[in-house]
Each structure stands twice: as structure tokens, then as C-alpha cells.
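Researcher: Going back to the complex we discussed earlier. I've cleaned up the inputs and rechecked each line, so this should be the final set. Can you rerun the prediction on the complete assembly and write out the structure?
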Amino acid sequence: MSLLVVGSLALDSVETPFGKRDDVLGGSATYFSAAASLLAKVSVVGVVGDDFPLGELDFLRKRGVELDGLEKVAGKTFRWKGRYGFDLNAAETLDTQLNVFEHFSPRLGPAARKADRIFLGNIDPELQMRVLDQVERPRLVCADTMNYWISSKRAQLLALLPRVDVLMVNDGEVRQLAGESNVMKAAHAAQRMGAKAVVVKRGEYGALLVAGEHSFYAPAFPLADVRDPTGAGDTFAGGFLGLLDRLDRTDAGALCQATVMGSTVASFTVERFSLDRLRDLTLAEVRLRFDAFRQLVHFDELPDHIG
Amino acid sequence: MSLLVVGSLALDSVETPFGKRDDVLGGSATYFSAAASLLAKVSVVGVVGDDFPLGELDFLRKRGVELDGLEKVAGKTFRWKGRYGFDLNAAETLDTQLNVFEHFSPRLGPAARKADRIFLGNIDPELQMRVLDQVERPRLVCADTMNYWISSKRAQLLALLPRVDVLMVNDGEVRQLAGESNVMKAAHAAQRMGAKAVVVKRGEYGALLVAGEHSFYAPAFPLADVRDPTGAGDTFAGGFLGLLDRLDRTDAGALCQATVMGSTVASFTVERFSLDRLRDLTLAEVRLRFDAFRQLVHFDELPDHIG
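Model: Rerun complete. Updated structure for the full complex:
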């Protein structure tokens, strides 16, 4: 089994009420592979500039992440600068510099083309399509997107959706895509557009999975210490796809477990800045918190005499 | 077993993106007793003016709700006017007329004084205390409050909390009470102020229960049709206390079931305006949706070989 992620590697500058970091490791492919590699074999396709501190990725290599698909080109790495207030659900973007990412066109090597499961990070839907045109026979395709593509590349996104098994977006994105304020109706509309299943990420409020007729809700793990929500969505995707690849299943039961695994891994990410908590995170720690999730949502049936 | 609710009976004028109603039945005691009476014997203490359409409460009488504690006085009934946008989690209050509610002082009759479980609706904490001074030996006290009392009657509220078993508030209220943005930390702070347990209501995102060391999360039931969120919190409280009274239990397991029951009944309330959905709601319908909640959050354990 194997996973392929295509997305950004970035240098982030982030400020939250709990601290500030400049030019730290970030990017969707980075967060995704840090999470997914706890569970599965991951290959990365992306691009960095000649200013990128490649040594920062050593912890990924040690977890078996395949970085041959990482292009190094002349110029500066993609940079994102953002700020969060006490409402950690919404980032304010202060600056985005695409740099070498501006002319990125994903090229898959022979191994990447054979990947079983694919995560299309939040990039131009035309590039996402170009990835799908290069892969041989993926068993599951999961795609993220954002408000910018939903408005500026709507036709391309709509062309992609029928090739997507799991569309993974946040509340605002699914509402915008569907033109519908009710999240359940919006998720069903996204299914009619072609996505087989939809995961709606709701930040500190958890995640909703709509797969066929089945609905499933995983809360976010209640944390007393949240410092930086950056990367939570991409590590959610990493835990989600990592578990599906490890289980080699895509039935509704596995999708529910994968949703909880996504929430679980994301709950570690936000406890520290950048990828700091993910660097030495172990699968044993993840497993403990996954099991605690069962306690968090468990309740007994009602006695028969009620109702 | 028996329940007592002390709170408002109101005439509400509400506008949402899905419609508009003027001078319809509302109020915390009304919503609470409509929900709780599906499960338990309820007494209401409150006040209405001589303009109140008492016939509107017939459906409560038919469910066995005791209305002897309802004072009818000269003057106009409490009126609330509010508006919701597409974000149905937050109401904008357009007008509040206390009217006969301004000089309300709860007086409990002999039966109400013997109530086993009490819901103190969102009224002045001095009045809430006056209720507790009249009851004999309640087994469980649950109290709601709001931003206005947290700032203007803080000392009185802090005096009340050690007599409260379950403080039932929303995100913003628990944050304001504790002066802490993190909801888990804020709930723990409210426990240190004296509340044995805290339920944090999060609108369409569900409800968090913190009881001793135990945390439990119930999502809101995902609905494709939400028309008017007014009264969701009070019907949550009604389902919550109604089930505890019916079960005659207050252990952590029962509190978790009660949280789900609260979410379940509230999910019906919001499907229609005012109390329209509650009038003919049956316990059998509620039971079916409670059982569907188990499906909504159920996931299997991980295989042993993972982690």
C-alpha cells in the first residue's frame, strides 16, 4: 500500500495569542506527510526554493517518507504569513508569496504513478487534474480546495469532482461551493457534483463525514492547550488517508475510523507551533488518544421502557 | 420524581432567513416544559400579563404540566424580538420588553417546594437564589445564565454557583465567566467556582459536558432543515433534566445520556418556528432520533496491530 501527496512545502510566519514564529516549516504536503507517515508509506511531490532548509525534513525521511519527487529550483520557497486571534478557527492571511510555487507543475516519477491513495493538497484544480492524469489506477483520491479556487477556477474544480472519492473542505468552503448555507444540504450538493464522500472540517468543533447515505460526526478532541492551529486540516487529511491506506479499506466503517484518526492527529498538531509536536509524535501516543475518543463520545442506549 | 422550572413565558417576534413570526409563544419555561414533559412530571413557576393567550398552553396541560405556579398579573407579557442571519448560532436582539417580568419574584407552592430536580432558567441570579431558598431538598439543580448577569450581577452569580449541580451555558458565556478563551479551561474554572458539572452548549456544533474528570461531547444532530433556533438551549435543558428525572440517576453515564437527549429534543425544536414542532412531538419520535445519534457517532476500535 502507498500514499502520494501533492501540495505545498512552505516557510510560515505565524502569530497567535500564545506566541510568534518566523519562517518555520509549513505547507500542506509537509503537514500531511508528517501525519500520514505514522501509519503508511508516503511519497511527496512538491517544490522548494534554494533557501529551503532541507535538513528540516530529516524527521520525515526517518519515518520512510519518499522525497524523490521534491523538486529543488532556483528562487525562494513559498511563504505564508498569518495571524490568529482568540478565535483560533479563522486565520487572517497577512501575506502570501508564491515564489517557486507559481510555476509549479507536478511531475510524478514511476513509483508515485502507482500510488494506491492520493491526497491532492489545496492547489490549483488544474494542477490537481494534472496529477490524476499521471497516476495509473488509484484506489482512493482525496482533494482539498479553498475559497479562491471555488470562485476563480470553478469550472476546473467541477471537472475534477467526479474523479474525487473524498472532498475534504471546511464549513465555509462547502457552503460556497454549493451556494447553500446549511452544511448537510451543501455536503449533499457536493456529492451530486461528483464527490463520492465529503468531509467537512469544522476546526475546534470537529468534522462531519457524509458518505453515501451515511453521516458521521467526530468532535475535535477537547484540549486545554491550543497554541497554533496551522496545519490542522492537512494533518487531519494525513491521519485520515494514512489509516485508510494502513487498513486497506474504504467502506463506511473505515471512513468513520479514518475521520476520528484525522481528528486525533490534528489534535496533536495544534498543541505546538509549526510541526513541532509532530516531529517526535509516536503511533502509540496517537493510539491512546484515539481510544480516549471512544470514551469522549460513548453513551449507553436508553432503557427499553423509555419511548 | 418531579421537575420544577422557573423562568420566562414570552411572546416572541422572530425573523430568520426562512420566515418571520410575530408575537408567538416563547420563553425559557415554556420551551423547557414542552421538552421535559415528554419524559417527566413538570411544574412551572413564572408570570404572564393579561394579554397572554393562555389557551396556547393547553398542549402542556395535556402532557401533565402543572401550571398552578403561573401568576397572571395586570400588564403586558414579557416580549422578545430578534433576528438571525444565515449563521443561525447567533441571534441579534432587536427589542426586549420586560413588562410584567420586571417585578417578578418567584413564589413556590407546597408541591413545587418538594421538586426533585430544578431548572433555573436565565433570570436574575438573585431570583435564582430566591428559588433555591424556597425548595426543600432538591437532588439536582441546573442553572442557565447570560452575558448580562455575568457582568452586572457577578457577585450574586458567584454566590449561586456552589449550589448548582449543572451550569448550562453557551461558549461565550463560559468564556466570559472564566475570563478564559479556551473552553475546556473555562469549564474547569467554572467547576472551581462551585458548579459540580458544566454543559457548554455550542449551537449547531453540539454540546460539551464536563463532569468531574469526565468529558463528553454530543454533536448537534445534522439537519437539512433548520428554520428557527430560538428555544434550542431551553429545550436542550428540558430533554437533559427530563431524562435525568425519568432515570432517577445523576452518575456520569446518565449525564452523558442526558446530554444526548438534550441535543435530540433541541434538534426537533429548530426544525420549525416557536414551539410548533414541540406541540405534537412524541417520545417515540424522540427515541428514534436518540438511537440515530448512536449511529452518528459510532466507530469501531482500531485493530490491535495499529499502535
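Model: Worth noting: The first strand of chain B starts at residue 3 and ends at 6.
Researcher: Good, that matches what I expected from the previous run.
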